[in-house]
Amino acid sequence: MLKIGEHQIMRIDRETEPGLFLSNEEGDDVLLPNKYVPAEYKIWDELNVFVYLDHEERPVATLLEPFILLNSFGYLRCTTVSKIGAFLDWGLEKELFVPFAQQARPMKVGSYYIVYMYLDEKTNRLVATSKTIKYLNNDKLTVEKFDKVDIIISHITDRGANAIVNGKHKGLIYKEDIFEDIRTGDKLEGWVKKIRPDGKLDIVLQEEGYRSIEPNAQYIYDELKANDGFLALHDKSAPEDIQAQLGLSKKSFKKAIGTLYRDRKILIKEDGLHLTE
């Protein structure tokens, strides 16, 4: 059975004028159009293809990599709004449809949205929804404290950054645990810092124990001691100033001073960094 919206391994069965027909072990076949045919191939070669429906709602294969897969989340740009709904760019020729009823708020051309893609059982079409909350559940967690997880930043508030954890759960990165520039739609690695009694997940972007092994933190600490406990740099400093003085990127610098700050080794003031000792 063809798996719409998923990658699958299929064999080259035969050559035709419009392209190659691929088949699976069950005998299902699908067209790989000429524009996606590899430069070199042989009959019975296996290809890892993505299958979706073309403009005439027929299954078609592609070697292109979509921005989102079936039953998963993505951050996609709206390209068109029509009388029936919105359409999103998901990296394939035919755009991804979002009915008006599946829009958390009316979509606008040019804006990006966190969406979930699913297969509409009535039409057998791939569609997306920005009403994503119902696809996240913290009642039955599949993660434990200290686990490494994949996250997508869903939106940022005064409390911190809300995240989709492993495509299944809701998590929060508190503002005081953020030491780098992050934005909605960012795909990052994180770690489960705490599981609250109500199932809510506290996520951090540095592995527990990171503070004790962070080499840049030790480097900055040593520089502070060598400069009478002060450096004229802080989290708002320009990247070129940080690079010139310490030879670090701003991202690495912010992670390192975050480590020192949480360990109460430094104070971050308007004029720069101060040792607390």
From TrEMBL:
Family assignment from sequence similarity: Belongs to the CvfB family.
TM annotation in the entry: none
Residue ranges of coiled coil: none
Domain Conserved virulence factor B-like winged helix: 219-275
Pfam families in UniProt: S1_2, WHD_CvfB
Domain Conserved virulence factor B first S1: 4-63, 78-130
Name this polypeptide is given: GntR family transcriptional regulator
PANTHER family referenced in this protein's UniProt entry, alphabetically: CONSERVED VIRULENCE FACTOR B
Domain of life of the organism encoding this protein: Bacteria
Alphabetized Gene3D superfamilies for the sequence: Nucleic acid-binding proteins, Winged helix-like DNA-binding domain superfamily/Winged helix DNA-binding domain
InterPro entries: CvfB_fam, CvfB_S1_st, CvfB_WH, NA-bd_OB-fold, WH-like_DNA-bd_sf
